[in-house]
Write a structure and sequence with these properties.
Number of helices: 5
Strand content: 15-25%
Strand order of the largest sheet: 3-2-1-6-9-11-12-13
Number of strands: 13
Structural class: alpha/beta
Largest sheet: 8 strands, mixed
Radius of gyration: 16 Å
Shape: globular
Order of helices and strands: HHEHEEEEEEEHEEEEEH
Helix content: 25-40%
């Protein structure tokens, strides 16, 4: 596709509008299912340094999962934008951490220590059947994942209505290891997302 940037821009606008227009009661039910999957299917996160996010424009809110993982002993962090074309920096978060709003109006920890993450829960405007993520167009998460070695476990989060056949991926796009929607957990295998049960996922991501 020659005009893929314009196509993504239009898809992004349409899908964000669809997400925001979904009745709050329905989004709440969807979010409860995603929360259950994150807690039940990824026990290894309890021992991990986990990057999360503050929700934006009707995204799934991971606050309950963050509180749960913190209580289990995980180290939690939220991303800070350092500048255009730069990787994100992850700053330590805990329930009483000092917070501030960034230039986008998103809550981030205020001057807490930097955390090197080994797993990351990533919001998605949309995703495709090859595990690629459509974000907000800035490329921050792709740049960040490319800069971290070894690459962290990636868990993309979206509602099922945001599932596209393809986002027309390019060389800078990085596929997710897992995608969680209210419908199922998808696992990337042979460059294709396959639905798996919470129980199977928990075995793959068991506590060590």
């Amino acid at each position: 596709m020659n005009n893929w940037r314009e196509w993504r821009k239009q898809q992004r606008a349409d899908l964000i509008a669809r997400r925001k227009q979904t009745p709050e009661a329905e989004r709440t039910l969807w979010s409860e299912a995603i929360t259950t999957s994150l807690i039940q299917a990824f026990p290894a996160l309890q021992q991990s340094h986990v990057g999360c996010y503050s929700p934006f424009q009707g995204e799934y809110d991971p606050a309950q999962v963050m509180t749960y993982l913190y209580a289990c002993g995980a180290t939690l962090a939220l991303p800070e934008v350092m500048g255009p074309h730069q990787p994100l920096k992850f700053r330590k978060w805990w329930p009483q951490a000092p917070m501030r709003k960034d230039a986008y109006g998103i809550a981030i920890p205020h001057d807490t220590e930097e955390v090197i993450i080994d797993a990351i829960i990533i919001p998605m405007v949309a995703f495709d059947s090859q595990g690629y993520r459509l974000g907000y167009g800035s490329g921050f998460f792709d740049r960040t994942l490319a800069a971290i070695n070894p690459r962290p476990l990636t868990i993309g989060i979206a509602f099922e209505v945001l599932h596209l056949p393809t986002i027309y991926p390019h060389e800078h796009d990085i596929a997710m290891d897992y995608v969680i929607t209210e419908k199922t957990i998808y696992y990337l295998t042979d460059h294709t997302l396959q639905s798996i049960s919470r129980e199977t996922c928990a075995i793959r991501n068991a506590l060590k």
